[in-house]
């Protein structure tokens, strides 16, 4: 179904809108009792607007093309009708043998989102006994293991299109009895280069399959998917919901390149941001450079990038949502969703990397064991080859996971601030980044650092090429946000009050050298390899050893200058001392005092160890029996 595009390269809205009368309770949606019981257990009171419209249409058997903002409950909107259809089919089946089939296929663009969707399916199917089984094909395991799992014919398969294509080619996944296909974050799926895999899937599945396409935006790519899967869909657009948001306070700071580090230091030391923060940077090297910089001031943070193993990335997100960590430094390599000027969708498809076997580059790097990953770490430590050095766009071409993505789809909970340390290159990517905050009725803030053209490359050690056109990109971002009814205001930092911190900035930046960054990347990879699933279970059984699973430990690749950890009172602006004394929920920046035995001169222990025995043959103080 082709539709006319508007000035934003988005299909124009159809007659279907969010103004229809929607059910106000899950009880009125004709769902099975086990699903209603699971909804109560999940503490869902009333359906969100997207759930109230998508679920009835899906239960009626219609193809659906829905657009709703991030965090609006889209996953539950398609999971519940899929589960309802599976339960209804099994209840009507004459024998148990008729019920074994892959009934639903859920396609997602990233591994992280696949794990999240699988958990949502399991949560809603918890009271369905053994009637519903779900299989996630993006887990890091041997293909033979996945073939054995698929041989048991799970009811729901969650995977990236590349993994589905692999199992279709090997005949381990058959879609002959498929009744539902769901494409989550549909506009991203084609942007990740899955167009050939999607065409293969569309050819082998039955024509009568019900399709549900969910997205945060309705762009030209979604129309392409609609022609493949969803003929004559019901279009559901929730424009009113997006316009009434307005809960993200957006600010921008124009500063020099080295002043980015000064400002981020001041923000966390003076606790100007209260709550959890996601810092987006331009590339992997930048990720570790900023972490090492913050370590100089005893500010703990986690890194999240495509170079880390998928299990480690998922664990970081889970622990972040449990309030274990408060600062995540994330790269945004795969979230540049097209150019906004002249490049067409066809051009972007041609430039997308071809997936021959469905395996990501990270999987090929890791292989079937841990030794190959260690080789990759050694390669980084010895200095990457020229072909792996940064390109003109500042992107690192080291081996990374093409299925990585955190700016869209992943459910980060209770994020107070999105800090764009490096501005994205498109307004669409900016919109998806700030969508990580102000969710579930909460307020949030987005703060972006922008490099003026006259300041570019003035401080080469902290410069990256992607900031060359920051002002032009900011103009596009501002225009796009104004169309959404939002505005970006300048953040009034009084730089004069931060002059006392500048000498500390210089000391810290000198310690974070290029060699220290390379060593940090190697060390992080090796540490994450040790944190396997078996060790994780062991540490969960031994809570005292849980500290070994933390992701915000010091990398110690750069020499830490002890005096930088403590802020003298004379450096603080007025009223800052009182702010430092308040507890705002951050992970403690200082180590808790341990019960250590006192030591005397020379490091000898004093007290607590009992009287030390003396060898009379080695001492002149031995007592004689004669007088």
UniProtKB/TrEMBL annotation:
Catalysed reaction, written as an equation: ATP + H2O = ADP + phosphate + H(+)
Compartment annotation: Nucleus
Domain DEAD-box RNA helicase Q, residue spans: 24-52
Domain annotation Helicase C-terminal: ranges: 247-499
First-listed, main subcellular location of the protein, grouped into a coarse class: nucleus
Keyword Cytoplasm set for record: no
GO MF annotation list: ATP binding; hydrolase activity; RNA binding; RNA helicase activity
Pfam family, one: Helicase_C
UniProt record, GO biological process: gene expression; ribosome biogenesis
Entry similarity comment: Belongs to the DEAD box helicase family. DDX56/DBP9 subfamily.
Physiological role: ATP-binding RNA helicase involved in the biogenesis of 60S ribosomal subunits and is required for the normal formation of 25S and 5.8S rRNAs.
Annotated protein name in UniProt: RNA helicase
Native organism: Microthyrium microscopicum
Lineage of the organism: Eukaryota, Fungi, Dikarya, Ascomycota, Pezizomycotina
């Amino acid at each position: 179904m082709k539709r006319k595009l508007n000035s934003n390269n988005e299909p124009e809205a159809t007659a279907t809108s969010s103004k229809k009368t929607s059910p106000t309770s899950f009880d009125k949606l004709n769902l099975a009792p086990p699903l209603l019981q699971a909804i109560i257990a999940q503490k869902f009171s009333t359906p969100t607007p997207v759930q109230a419209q998508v679920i009835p249409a899906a239960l009626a058997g219609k193809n659906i093309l829905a657009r709703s903002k991030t965090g609006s409950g889209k996953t539950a909107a398609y999971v519940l009708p899929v589960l309802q259809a599976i339960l209804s089919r099994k209840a009507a089946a004459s024998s148990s043998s008729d019920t074994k089939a892959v009934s639903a296929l859920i396609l997602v663009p990233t591994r992280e989102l696949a794990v999240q969707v699988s958990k949502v399916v399991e949560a809603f199917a918890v009271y369905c006994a053994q009637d519903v089984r779900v299989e996630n094909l993006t887990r890091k395991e041997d293909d033979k293991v996945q073939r054995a799992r698929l041989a048991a014919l799970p009811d729901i398969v969650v995977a990236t299109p590349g993994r589905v294509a692999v199992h279709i080619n090997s005949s381990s996944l058959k879609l002959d009895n498929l009744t539902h296909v769901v494409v989550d974050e549909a506009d991203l799926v084609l942007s990740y280069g899955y167009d050939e895999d999607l065409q293969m899937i569309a050819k082998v599945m039955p024509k009568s399959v019900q399709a549900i396409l969910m997205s945060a935006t309705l762009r030209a790519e979604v129309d392409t998917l609609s022609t493949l899967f969803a003929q004559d869909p019901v279009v559901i657009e929730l424009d009113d919901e997006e316009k009434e948001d307005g809960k993200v306070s957006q600010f921008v700071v124009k500063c020099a390149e080295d002043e980015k580090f000064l400002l981020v230091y001041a923000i966390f030391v003076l606790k100007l941001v209260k709550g959890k923060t996601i810092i987006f940077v331009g590339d992997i090297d930048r990720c570790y450079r900023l972490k090492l910089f913050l370590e100089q001031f005893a500010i703990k943070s986690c890194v999240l990038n495509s170079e880390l193993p998928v299990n480690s990335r998922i664990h970081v997100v889970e622990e972040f949502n449990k309030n274990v960590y408060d600062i995540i430094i994330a790269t945004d390599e795969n979230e540049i969703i097209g150019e906004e000027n002249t490049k067409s969708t066809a051009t972007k498809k041609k430039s997308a990397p071809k997936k021959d076997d469905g395996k990501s580059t990270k999987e090929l790097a890791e292989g079937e064991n841990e030794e190959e990953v260690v080789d990759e770490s050694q390669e980084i430590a010895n200095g990457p080859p020229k072909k792996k050095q940064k390109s003109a766009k500042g992107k690192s071409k080291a081996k990374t996971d093409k299925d990585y993505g955190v700016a869209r789809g992943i459910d980060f909970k209770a994020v107070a601030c999105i800090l764009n340390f490096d501005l994205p290159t498109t307004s669409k990517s900016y919109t998806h980044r700030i969508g990580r905050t102000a969710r579930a009725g909460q307020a949030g803030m987005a703060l972006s650092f922008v490099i003026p053209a006259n300041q570019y490359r003035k401080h080469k050690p902290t410069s990256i090429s992607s900031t060359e056109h920051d002002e032009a990109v900011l103009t596009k971002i501002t225009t796009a946000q104004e169309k959404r009814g939002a505005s970006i205001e300048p953040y009034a930092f009084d730089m004069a009050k931060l002059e006392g911190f500048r000498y500390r900035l210089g000391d810290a930046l000198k310690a974070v050298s290029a060699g220290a960054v390379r060593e940090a990347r190697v060390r992080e990879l090796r540490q994450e390899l040790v944190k396997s699933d078996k060790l994780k279970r062991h540490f969960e059984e031994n809570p005292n050893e849980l500290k070994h699973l933390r992701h915000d430990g010091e990398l110690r690749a750069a020499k830490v200058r002890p005096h930088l950890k403590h802020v003298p009172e004379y450096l603080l602006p007025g009223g800052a001392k009182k702010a430092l004394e308040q507890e705002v929920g951050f992970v403690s920046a200082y180590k808790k005092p341990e019960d250590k035995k006192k030591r005397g001169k020379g490091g000898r222990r004093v007290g607590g160890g009992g009287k030390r025995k003396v060898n009379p043959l080695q001492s002149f103080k031995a007592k004689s029996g004669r007088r």
